[in-house]
């Protein structure tokens, strides 16, 4: 409901600057996570280096095979992303989304990103995250 109200306000807004809203499809977010970003987030939350190394080993040492015309292909490795059925993946994803949230908050604090007020007396909104069926 909040999202609908904000989008309605954006449509009706008059003025020189206008408004902008981003809708990012998180349904493929597990596949797109950058491994360096994951590692950076783990260091920022001050996990012990050995635990970071273990986590990153679980993320980066995965190999895949596909079936082409009934035959298995050679093994190949990914360059980014986390596996959807891995019990570690939801935790890594939440940590990365939390980091994104902090970066947006910093942009608002430094005046680089201006929030939208739903009404004159209403709260300001600068980001909303929704997760329907990520896992």
From TrEMBL:
Give a Pfam family name: RVT_1
Name of the molecule in the record: Putative RNA-directed DNA polymerase
> Which organism is this protein's natural source?
Rosa chinensis
Give start and end of each Reverse transcriptase domain.
Answer: 1-135
Enzyme class of the recorded protein, top EC level: transferase
Q: Which PANTHER family match?
A: NON-LTR RETROLELEMENT REVERSE TRANSCRIPTASE-LIKE PROTEIN-RELATED, RNA-DIRECTED DNA POLYMERASE
The UniProt keywords, alphabetically, are: Nucleotidyltransferase, RNA-directed DNA polymerase, Transferase
Q: Does the keyword Transmembrane helix apply?
A: no
Which EC number(s) does the record attach to this protein?
2.7.7.49
The molecular function terms of the Gene Ontology recorded here are: RNA-directed DNA polymerase activity
């Amino acid at each position: 409901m909040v999202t609908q109200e904000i989008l309605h306000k954006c449509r009706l807004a008059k003025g020189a600057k206008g408004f902008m809203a981003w809708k990012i499809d998180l349904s493929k977010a597990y596949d797109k996570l950058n491994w360096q970003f994951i590692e950076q987030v783990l260091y920022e939350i001050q996990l012990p280096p050995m635990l970071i190394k273990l986590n990153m080993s679980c993320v980066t040492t995965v190999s895949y095979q596909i079936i082409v015309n009934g035959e298995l292909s050679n093994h190949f490795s990914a360059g980014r992303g986390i596996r959807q059925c891995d019990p570690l993946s939801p935790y890594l994803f939440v940590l990365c989304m939390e980091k994104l949230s902090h970066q947006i908050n910093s942009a608002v604090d430094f005046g680089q990103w201006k929030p939208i007020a739903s009404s004159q007396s209403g709260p300001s909104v600068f980001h909303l995250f929704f997760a329907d069926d990520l896992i």
